[in-house]
Amino acid sequence: QVQLVESGGGSVQAGGSLRLSCEVFGYSHCAADMSWYRQAVGKDREFVAGIDFVGNPTYADSVEGRFTVSQDAKNTLYLQMNSLKPEDTAMYYCKTEQCNSWGQGTQVTVSS
Question: Are 48 and 39 contacting, i.e. CB atoms less than 8 angstroms apart?
C-alpha cells in the first residue's frame, strides 16, 4: 500500500510563491510517473503538472512558465509555484499515476 502526504500550502497575495511537497510512503515503484492536480470550489479536478517515468515534465497551459515540477532522489515530488494568481486558488493533490493513488490535498489560497 502507498501513502502520499502533501504539504506546503497556504495563503499568499497575487504575485507570490509557494512550494508544495508530496512525500511517498510505501511501495517505492509508485513514485515513478507522478502528477499534481487541483480542484477549485465548484469545479472539476484538473491536471496541473507531472513527471513521467524518465523524468520529463509536462504542464497545463494555465501554469506553463510559472510552475515547476520536480522530484528528488528520495522520490519526494515538488511543485514550485511562482507568480501566483487568484485563479490558482484550489486544493492541490498529488497522485501516483503508476499506482493510481491520491494524497489528501493541501489548500492554496491566492488573494488579489
Answer: no
C-alpha span between 73 and 24 (Å, rounded): 12
Answer whether 47's CB lies under 8 Å from 35's CB: yes
- pLDDT tens, 3-29? 999 999 999 999 999 999 999 998 888
What pLDDT, in 10s, does the model give residues 80-99? 999 999 999 999 999 999 99
Distance CA 38, CA 73 (A): 25
CA atoms within 13 A on the CB side of 33: 8
d(CA 48, CA 63): 7
The strand pairing partners of 69, in sequence order, are: 79
